[in-house]
Structures are given as structure tokens and as C-alpha cells.
Amino acid sequence: MQSNKFKFTNVSIFFVSVGLLTIAVLLNSCMMMGMGTMGGMGGGMNHGNNQSNSMSDTAIVRKGVIDVNSIDLNKDGYVYQCTMDWNVISDENGKCPLCRMTLKKVANEEAVKNLKEHNFEVKE
Ligand SMILES: [Zn+2]
User: I need a surface site. Which of 82, 89, 110, 117 has the fewest CB within 10 A?
Assistant: First the structure.
């Protein structure tokens, strides 16, 4: 008899705690949903466009047979070349997208000579 009574109390405690747990879980999920909506809104507003910048950067990394004269768009006889990455040549002053070094102003012939010395293929 004594043990039966004990069991009964135990079971009711179990049900009460399950009930509380359910309420707690429901409240929790409501809060989570609210936070999720807010987080989504915040993320939607954050448009990063760093990607496009790095895309145009790598355009001055020359590949294959390099035609220095066609890189010299303003035809002043000078281009900007990276002294670490010889195939990085631009008609405008800037920084090397590979090593972030400032490009060096060189005459077209000098750029060609540098490329040849470092085994790059050059169009003449
Ligand atoms: Zn470089």
C-alpha cells in the first residue's frame, strides 16, 4: 500500500514536469522564431560588394602571351608593373592584387625585358 502511494505521487510529479517542460519548450520556440525573423531581416540588409572589387583587380594579372603594347592603352610608352609578379601589368598606377605591392612605372620595352628575363611569353 505504502509503495503504491509513493508510485502515484511520482507519476503525478512526472506529468507536472512534462507539462512545465512543454510550456517552456513552446515559449522557447516562440522566442527563437522572433529572433530568427529579426536576424533574417538584418542579414537581408547587409549587401557586401567586396567581390566585384577583387574581380577587377585580377584583370591586370596577365596570362599566356603578354602583349605589353596593348596593355599601354593611353600609348604613352609606359606601363605599371609589379616587381614581384612580372605578369601583373596595368596602364594605371595601382597595387598588385597578388602581393599588394605598389606597381612600378616602367617603359614598355623595360616591361618586355623583365618578362623575358623571368621566362614569360611576350608578344613582339
Ligand atoms: Zn605582386
Answer: 117
